[in-house]
């Protein structure tokens, strides 16, 4: 079992640590757990929003806890004071408790000879990658398909079954009224620290590029159509569909099963509720829901 010293935790958290109370030399943790499975060697944390957080700290079986500055010291424990205990727990968890794939390309992956893949990236079994660029530390899970003219930045995570850079769904009619494909010759540009969920499809642009900016997150089973722009820190949740040439603004949230009609813009810091059908432009700092979606109120 892996043991992590309190000293290692403090070093990992760096400037997040405001103070440490209690003797912590030769004190170790070896697990993270939900509230019902905390034990002596768990790294526990206290949610600052709890009304009885001091009582929780005192009754916790854990010896080491991440707490905010309002918690009074509990005898016999090690309290690591931070501004945001949940953020600190996530930092420690990612550093010490999340299993990371090994760097490199699995022998069963199929990689185009002109692909550019950083040495610190990871490509899983049966992934198929065309003439694409994959940045440092990015994880491409097994069974992912990445087409030509796709650029993925640093620290991204693409889950199983995702398809990135396939042709978009665009058609015109010929002189007899029959549909034929409009050229889909753009690419996909994905920034740094972007997550793409399992079985999600991100189509390449028609004449321009489909763009996912830094820190944007797309959940499982989503469809991002051609020429879409998902801006920084925006979140698109499971089974949502963002139609062609839409823009989803910074720090916005598109709920499960939502649908955004083509060529519409969702503003910054805006929430689109689950199952909503957006047929109009949505402004900044708004909450929309329903079918068709209507504004409910403005976020503060």
Can you walk through the features of this model?
- It is a single chain.
- 9% of the residues lie in helices and 32% in strands.
- It is mostly beta strands and 300 residues long.
- Strand 35 (286-290) and strand 36 (293-298) form a beta hairpin.
- The radius of gyration is 23 Å and the shape is globular.
- The relative contact order is 0.07.
Number of strands: 36
Helix share of residues? under 10%
pLDDT below 50 for ≥5 consecutive residues: which ranges? none
Amino-to-carboxy terminus distance: 46 Å
Number of helices: 3
Overall body shape? globular
Radius of gyration based on Cα positions: 23 Å
- Can you give the mean pLDDT? 96
Lateral arrangement of strands in the main beta sheet: 7-10-13-16-21-24-27-30-33-35-36
Largest sheet: 11 strands, mixed
Beta-strand fraction estimate: 25-35%
What structural category arises from helix and sheet content? mainly beta
């Amino acid at each position: 079992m892996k043991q992590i010293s309190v000293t290692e935790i403090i070093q990992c958290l760096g400037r997040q640590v405001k103070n440490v109370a209690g003797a912590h030399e030769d004190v170790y943790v070896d697990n993270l757990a939900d509230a019902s499975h905390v034990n002596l060697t768990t790294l526990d944390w206290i949610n600052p929003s709890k009304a009885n957080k001091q009582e929780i700290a005192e009754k916790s079986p854990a010896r080491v806890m991440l707490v905010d500055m309002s918690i009074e010291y509990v005898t016999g424990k090690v309290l690591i004071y931070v501004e945001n205990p949940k953020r600190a727990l996530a930092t420690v968890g990612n550093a010490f408790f999340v299993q990371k794939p090994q760097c490199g390309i699995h022998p069963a992956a199929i990689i185009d000879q002109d692909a550019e893949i950083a040495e610190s990236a990871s490509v899983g079994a049966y992934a198929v990658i065309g003439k694409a660029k994959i940045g440092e530390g990015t994880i491409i899970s097994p069974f992912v398909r990445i087409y030509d003219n796709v650029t993925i930045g640093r620290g991204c995570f693409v889950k199983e079954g995702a398809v990135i850079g396939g042709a978009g769904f665009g058609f015109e009619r010929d002189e007899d009224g029959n549909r034929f494909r409009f050229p889909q010759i753009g690419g996909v540009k994905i920034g740094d620290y972007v997550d793409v969920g399992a079985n999600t499809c991100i189509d390449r642009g028609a004449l321009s590029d489909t763009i996912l900016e830094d820190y944007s997150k797309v959940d499982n089973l989503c469809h991002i159509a051609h020429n879409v722009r998902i801006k920084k820190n925006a979140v698109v949740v499971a089974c949502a569909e963002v139609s062609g040439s839409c823009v989803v603004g910074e720090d916005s949230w598109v709920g499960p099963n939502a649908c955004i009609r083509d060529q519409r813009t969702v503003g910054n810091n805006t929430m689109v509720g689950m199952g909503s059908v957006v047929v109009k432009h949505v402004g900044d700092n708004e909450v929309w829901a329903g079918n068709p979606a209507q504004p409910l109120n403005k976020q503060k």
